[in-house]
């Protein structure tokens, strides 16, 4: 049980399914009040009903497309007016489309950066003033191991997640002056609907087999880190070790791993 979350307000983007949904459940178990954001309002309503019925916490849901940053600031002002201070922001919304660089479609390129990077930054900017004023808060950005080690067919997605990590690392140093925590979450592949968009062939998930992560376990790790100084969450450990090894010996990893990488 994370007692630090009791009666805190946690805002989660991309909360209608997958990892975002599981983070919502974990926070509710720990008696946090929730604000769940997504484009899929019908799914949010079902999630709200389940959470309020099973965990007896407050749960507000709002439909928003964070790829349209002009809609973000007014929404967060409305949330603060309704729910009070935002204690934790989980920037979970994001998606990927796997394709070789030559074949990447412009609309997918723009879409990934609009959601994964610009939308994330817009949501973050919306909570910074309140957190600085209170000298308290936690911003958690869901990045990816792809932001540490890019592989074939994920050049655009990896670029967006490299941007998230760069933003997060800079933000962490800026916000430390106000006692606001900033955490980057770098998961490997998670068993969610992400791959229905990212890899329509289904080959990537099939090749991963038992190495694919459980969203419930990743969500539990994220929830345990809330309102702590944890800098990063890297799962699975072996993949993060590979990322570190890549930073030290990039040419060797690219040569040895090329065949495995191309299985995506």
Write a structural description.
The model has no long low-confidence stretch (mean pLDDT 91). This protein has one domain (3-261): NAD(P)-binding Rossmann-like Domain (Rossmann fold), CATH 3.40.50.720. 51% of the residues lie in helices and 13% in strands. It has helices at 18-29, 41-55, 72-83, 106-134, 155-175, 194-198, 203-208, 215-225, 237-248, 250-261, and strands at residues 9-12, 33-38, 59-63, 88-91, 138-142, 181-187, 232-235. The longest helix has 29 residues, at 106-134. It starts with 8 loop residues before the first strand and ends with a helix. Helix 9 (237-248) packs across helix 10 (250-261). The protein is of the alpha/beta class and 264 residues long.
